[in-house]
């Protein structure tokens, strides 16, 4: 894959005698032992000691591979599901301050307006996101703008919406990293809308931990 690494974590294990082992699927790019990875949204940066799939060591993991990888000097509590591993030297993953998405409302019984805060399922993260601003209502087939700043959207409507995560979260534009740029909107125990991310405003990490081995390799 010619895109930079993105590997959303599904889980993190502590394995006796080995240490901390995050697990997930490579969505884009490659993961190799010796690589220095940065985990978004926190910016924690460390070296990958080894990469395994089905209990076999790999020299590189490619898109679609479900792998576990051992990281140096990182506590299990410093990583969690929904974090995204990336190459520290190649467009590292960052926290999204806000993002703009094209959304289609499908199963919502009422109407959706500014301030709505459902849960977004995007890659492995599951985080409440505030619909800060309904920017436009659009024709879902042609993409043409029908209305600026609609008061609300209802079933069958599509619109561009500015969203703000309620907790630190990593998302990407659909055009750059498709698996991290599409989502389902969950409310009332069902999917009420689906969307793709058009644009992301990112935050620079502040005071992120960089392990000694990672600092050496910079």
Automatic annotation (TrEMBL):
| CDD domains membership | EF1_alpha_II, EF1_alpha_III
Domain Translation elongation factor EFTu-like intervals = 19-84
Q: Where in the cell is it found?
A: Cytoplasm
Main site of residence? cytoplasm
Its domain of life? Answer: Eukaryota
Q: Which UniProt keywords apply?
A: Cytoplasm, Elongation factor, GTP-binding, Isopeptide bond, Nucleotide-binding, Protein biosynthesis, Ubl conjugation
Q: Which GO terms describe its cellular component?
A: cytoplasm
Q: Where is the GTP-eEF1A C-terminal domain?
A: 98-198
- Give the GO molecular function terms: GTP binding; mRNA binding; translation elongation factor activity
**Record's PANTHER family?**
ELONGATION FACTOR 1 ALPHA, TR-TYPE G DOMAIN-CONTAINING PROTEIN
The entry assigns this protein to a family as follows:
Belongs to the TRAFAC class translation factor GTPase superfamily. Classic translation factor GTPase family. EF-Tu/EF-1A subfamily.
What is the official name of this protein in its record? Elongation factor 1-alpha
Q: What is the lineage of its organism?
A: Eukaryota, Viridiplantae, Streptophyta, Embryophyta, Tracheophyta
